[in-house]
Amino acid sequence: MNHDPAGLVDAEGGRLLAALRHLLAEKDIATPGEIAERIAATERASPRLGAAMVAQAWCDPAFRALMLADGTAAAESLGIAMRGLPPLGVLENTPALHHLVVCTLCSCYPRAVLGYPPFWFKSAAYRARAVRDPLGLLAEFGTQLPAGQRVRVVDSTADYRWMVLPLRPAGTQGWSAERLAALLDAGDLVGTTVPTARERV
Amino acid sequence: MSGRFQPGAAVRVRDAWPERQGPVHLRTPHYLRGRPGRVLRSLGAFPNPEDLAFGRPAAAVPLYHVAFDPGTLWPDAARDGDLVVEVFEHWLEPRA
Amino acid sequence: MDQDHPRQHHDIGGVPAFMCREVDTEPHALSDFDREVDALRQILGQKRVMSVDELRRCIEAIPEADYHRLSYYERWIRAIADHLLRQGTVTPDELRAALEQGG
């Protein structure tokens, strides 16, 4: 490789990061302050945001319609920062259809509304198996779909980021959006698990 | 921007393997090449990632959600379900 | 691994070598290293120094054995370094000197 004849990129990750931090700060491309600020901004995104969207959709048919038509607009209407980020697509589960999201090529994940991707989502086992053996994979997450509900695997390969709008659990009539949101975690929002009327957070 | 395929269109993913020729960046998984599918819906148009990856000017290409029967992809896959993938138009051809 | 298949090594949907692996569903906390690499990648994207597809392409260029040995963010920092060198934003001499100084 002509651009790196000495194989400098083979250096240990921590050393590479330290060296690049130094060089990019010197070149005023990425300063330590900017990096700290970015980390703080990234940590503000978490599955709580996606959970709030889903809970709102369960309570408000107009919001649900907006969310299914334009996930980005729905997220922005709740004050979630989406500017400059990939468009958010929302996959609606029904009694007949369950969605499972994977990225077999890398690890595309709806970070704006779920935060950092979980370890398992990035793993080779998850990426390889979700498309070919979704039911076996779901079983490992303790998820068994009811008879008559087919699974649709969505391989997130390109420009969208996909989240799942799960079915509202039975026995939650009249619950507030806040109470409903506490039933949801990241797995429910990419389809490895399904929410129940039991609190997750 | 609307592309050449409408929802419901029968398509086939091109049986092309550019990765055999040299360095490339592709967003069409290997397991779809040459396989039949059906267009679910248009997702708009996005700059071609195959050019973006190399810092080249990238034209916008229509992008579709295309549904596949897992049984046509893997002999051991359960047929009770499907697989939906974002595929760029230049990877699709019409299927009779 | 299925050597007769011309797929690229990151392109692992349905690939037999991984089909019998269990998924590690335990939570893994991110380290400071992970968070910093992630933030750096975002800044380089915002400043149009490196697009997502340029990152992906450089991750895909990591030799197969290294790809599977490195952690997720170790792949990223290696790909970022590779891209900055290819682009000329950082020269090999600069990077060598910075590595020798310990950052």
What's the total helix number of chain A?
Answer: 11
Output the strand order for the largest sheet of chain A.
1-4
Estimated helix fraction of chain A: 40-55%
| H and E order of chain A | HHHHHEEHHHHEEHH
| Low-confidence regions of chain C | none
Question: In CATH's first tier, which class of the largest domain in chain A applies?
Answer: Alpha Beta
SS element count, helices of chain C? 6
Q: State Rg of chain C.
A: 16 Å
Based on the structure given, which CATH architecture of the largest domain in chain A is correct? Alpha-Beta Complex
**CATH fold name of the largest domain in chain A:** Nitrile Hydratase, Chain A
Biggest beta-sheet profile of chain C: none
The end-to-end span of chain A amounts to: 49 Å
The outline of chain A comes out as globular
Instruction: Provide the low-confidence segments of chain A as ranges.
Output: none
Textual characterization of the structure:
- Chain C: It comes from Lichenibacterium ramalinae.
- Chain C: This is Nitrile hydratase subunit beta.
- Chain C: InterPro entries: CN_hydtase_beta-like_N (IPR049054), CN_hydtase_beta_C (IPR042262), Elect_transpt_acc-like_dom_sf (IPR008990).
- The complex is a heterotrimer of chains A (201), B (96) and C (103).
- By secondary structure, chain A is mainly α.
- Chain A folds into two domains: 12-43, no CATH class; 48-190, Nitrile Hydratase, Chain A (Alpha-Beta Complex).
- Chain A has helices at 13-26, 32-43, 47-59, 61-69, 71-77, 111-114, 119-122, 124-132, 134-140, 177-181, 186-190; strands spanning 88-92, 97-102, 150-155, 161-165.
- In chain A, the strands form two sheets. A two-stranded parallel ribbon of chain A has the order 1-4.
- Chain B has a single domain (10-94), classed as Roll (SH3 type barrels), CATH 2.30.30.50.
- Chain B is built from two helices and five strands.
- Chain C is mainly alpha-helical.
- Chain C is built from six helices and no strands.
- Chain C has helices at residues 16-19, 32-46, 52-60, 64-69, 72-87, 92-100.
- The model of chain C has no long low-confidence stretch (mean pLDDT 93).
- Chains A and C meet through helix 1, helix 2, helix 7 and helix 8 of A and helix 1, helix 2, helix 5 and helix 6 of C.
- Strand 3 (150-155) of chain A pairs parallel with strand 4 of chain B.
